[in-house]
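F.,

This is the one I mentioned.
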C-alpha cells in the first residue's frame, strides 16, 4: 500500500515536509480553490513533480449538489465530471474519491456535533451524537429528496461517468456517508450501510466502479474491517485511515494508537488480498501546539498519524528495500546519503 497525504494548509513548506516524512503521493483535496480543469490539475502535477511528489488522488473537489438532487443542472455537472476524469487520465492521476451525500456546491454534508471533545492529553477532537443533532447543522438544502430517488440519481450518474472513467484509466472511489446514518435533520443519505455498498458495486461490473474504504465510517457502521476488505477486494481503490470509539449515533474520533481497533490484522488482510492502492490518514485530533480551531486536518497531527501508519505497514509488510544503497560501500554511505536529492 502507498501512503498518501492530504496536506493542509496546502503550502510548499508542508508539501516538502510530507516528502521528508517519506510520503510520495499527494491527495488534492479542493485547495487551492479554483475551477477544477486540465490547466489547474496540470499546474498541480508540475508543482508536485518539482518537489519529488506525485498527484495520485483527487478528492472532494467537484460540485455534485445538482447531481445528487437530480435537478436541472445535473447534466452540466456530469459533463464537468467527465472532463475532469479525462484530464486526470492525461496527467496520470489514478483515483477520484467522491461521495453522494446532500451537498451545497462541493461542500459535502459531513456532520459532527462538536470539534472540541477531549482526546488524550486534552487534545481536541471531533465527535457526533445523534441526540445532539439539530436542524441548524444542516442548511436549507433543497429539494428534500427520498432515498430511492437518490439511488435513481446515482444510477443516472454512474451510467454516464463510468465509461468516461474507463476511457481515462481512472478509478472511481465512493466514500461512505459520514456519519453513516440514513437520515439526519431531514436529509436522506444512501451510502450508510454495508448493504448500500453491495448495491453500489452491483450497479456496474466495471473495475472503475469502486469504493473508498474509510475505516472510520465502516467502524461507525459496526462493520468488521477485515471482513469488509475481503468483501470488496479489488473494488477498494482508496483507503482512509482513522479510528473511532463508540457506535453509529454516538462516537468520538481518536488518535490512531489510542482507539479500540487492532490494526495489525486489518493490514494483514490488505496484504492477503494484494491491495496496493493509496491510503491516507483521515481526521486526527488537534495538538496543543497547533493554532486555530480544530477541523481534523492539522498538519502536525497528520504528520504524527502518518508516521504511525508507516510503522503499521512496516510491521506487516517489512521495511521496503532502498535500492540506492545496494551497491554503495559502507564507508561511502554517509556521503551518499547527504548528496541524495528529492
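My design for it:
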Amino acid at each position: 500500500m502507498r501512503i498518501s497525504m492530504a496536506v493542509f494548509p496546502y503550502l510548499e513548506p508542508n508539501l516538502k515536509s510530507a516528502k521528508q516524512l517519506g510520503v510520495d503521493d499527494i491527495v488534492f483535496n479542493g485547495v487551492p480553490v479554483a475551477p477544477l480543469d486540465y490547466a489547474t490539475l496540470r499546474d498541480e502535477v508540475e508543482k508536485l513533480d518539482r518537489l519529488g511528489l506525485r498527484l495520485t488522488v483527487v478528492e472532494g473537489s467537484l460540485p455534485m449538489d445538482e447531481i445528487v438532487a437530480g435537478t436541472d443542472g445535473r447534466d452540466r455537472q456530469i459533463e464537468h465530471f467527465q472532463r475532469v476524469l479525462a484530464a486526470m487520465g492525461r496527467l496520470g492521476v489514478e483515483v477520484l474519491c467522491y461521495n453522494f451525500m446532500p451537498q451545497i456546491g462541493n461542500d459535502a454534508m459531513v456532520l459532527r456535533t462538536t470539534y472540541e471533545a477531549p482526546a488524550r492529553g486534552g487534545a481536541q477532537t471531533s465527535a457526533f451524537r445523534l441526540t445532539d443533532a439539530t436542524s441548524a447543522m444542516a442548511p436549507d438544502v433543497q429539494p428534500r429528496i427520498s432515498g430511492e430517488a437518490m439511488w435513481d440519481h446515482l444510477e443516472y450518474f454512474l451510467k454516464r461517468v463510468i465509461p468516461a472513467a474507463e476511457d481515462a484509466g481512472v478509478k472511481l472511489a465512493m466514500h461512505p456517508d459520514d456519519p453513516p446514518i440514513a437520515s439526519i435533520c431531514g436529509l436522506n443519505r444512501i451510502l450508510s450501510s454495508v448493504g448500500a455498498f453491495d448495491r453500489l458495486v452491483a450497479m456496474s461490473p466495471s473495475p472503475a466502479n469502486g469504493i473508498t474504504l474509510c475505516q472510520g465510517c465502516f467502524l461507525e457502521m459496526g462493520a468488521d474491517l477485515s471482513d469488509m476488505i475481503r468483501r470488496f477486494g479489488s473494488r477498494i481503490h482508496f483507503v482512509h485511515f482513522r479510528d473511532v470509539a463508540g457506535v453509529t449515533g454516538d462516537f468520538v474520533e481518536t488518535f490512531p494508537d489510542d482507539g479500540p481497533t487492532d490494526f495489525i490484522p486489518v493490514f494483514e488482510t490488505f496484504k492477503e488480498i494484494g491491495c496496493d492502492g493509496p491510503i491516507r490518514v483521515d481526521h486526527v485530533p488537534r495538538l496543543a501546539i497547533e493554532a486555530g480551531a480544530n477541523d481534523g486536518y492539522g498538519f502536525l497531527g497528520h504528520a504524527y498519524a502518518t508516521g504511525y501508519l508507516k510503522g503499521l505497514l512496516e510491521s506487516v509488510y517489512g521495511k521496503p528495500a532502498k535500492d540506492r544503497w545496494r551497491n554503495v560501500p559502507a564507508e561511502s554511505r554517509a556521503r551518499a546519503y547527504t548528496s541524495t536529492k528529492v
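The two ends are 21 Å apart (CA to CA).

Talk soon.
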